[in-house]
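Sample A.
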Amino acid sequence: MATTYEIIQGLSQAAANAYDGAHNDEGELLEIGLQREQGNPLIDKRVMDGFNVRFFANKMVLSYHSEVQLKEVYAKGFESEIDQRLADIVSFLKKEYRKVTGSSVGLKQEGEIDVRVENSSRIRSWVMAAKTYVIEGSEAETVPQYSSDKLQDGWQSFLDQGGLGKKAKNDKRPKSSGE
């Protein structure tokens, strides 16, 4: 059984292998499931999209970013289309993880997809989506909780050293009527 660190290393390497223009062993372009893979790159307008993975405890957060047109946003099934794109990316990550490490990894969806569309003008819009997955088979189950006792003691000793409201020893100014 792999440790959490080894699983995270493998998933990070799988995500790193998904750069734009990456080729597989046969020399063909990698199919990740992104919009930039569609069409002819020489004559079609390039779609800027990509994904990122980040980890905490036994969870992986998959983030996706892409340019969109408002007519796509208002069309039916926009959120499910983005959700399917994330599912394609997870499928790619699992396959690439198997190639990199020689073993499989389980990613179980936790919660719902978070989709946010923003625009900077009437023409430029983009979508940002994120979804959390539980890494199955990893050792860490929860994020460790920090004790506030140690923190409280440190702050208390810091405050005791201060002289809020007291005059410093090296202050040679004459006393004013306000003090």
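Sample B, a different protein:
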Amino acid sequence: MPKKLPFKLILASASPRRRQLLSDAGYEFKVAPPEIAEPDTPPEGVLPTVWAETLAYLKARSVAEGHPDAMVLGADTIVTHGDRIIGKPRDLDHARDILTRQFGGKNDVITGLALLLPGRIERIITYVRTTLTMRPMTGAELEDYLAGGAWRGKAGAYAWQEGGDKFVLSACGSESNVVGLPLEKLDEILSEIEYNSSQS
């Protein structure tokens, strides 16, 4: 049975992974991919958490303009290694470089969430962080993973749900966040909106 929401929900994302997570969680929603160009890197001095929230908000806002009566959900996931944001790989060689440097240590997966309510009288912007401890890849594992193509279009050049999880020694935090949508936090936000709406 679909989860009850006070307004129709629109997912401002072209990601099939987010779509699947939201569907599996029992929400009814429509998809409207945002038409914005995502910068590769944040301005100097901007924290990764703030950057993830900013991109999520920009995505939600671009879609909300055409859907004034709906809740619009934007999300953006980034990966950091140390203090450095690891973006999406440009090509195979860039993916190899990213994976060689970041496997065998700790990575943070940060997803910014932005939910804009109808009438835009309220907006909720937050983030969720999951810390992954990675094991090193052998040379053969690295080349096999690259050959499989799962690195394409993925922040950090790997996908948890497409074989990347086998290189994870431990995950501290939400696993759905690593896939691209922290369902625990989203459930909390939407449940509060439903409760507040029922009280008004």
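Observation for Sample B: The domain at 9-199 is CATH 3.90.950.10 (Maf protein).
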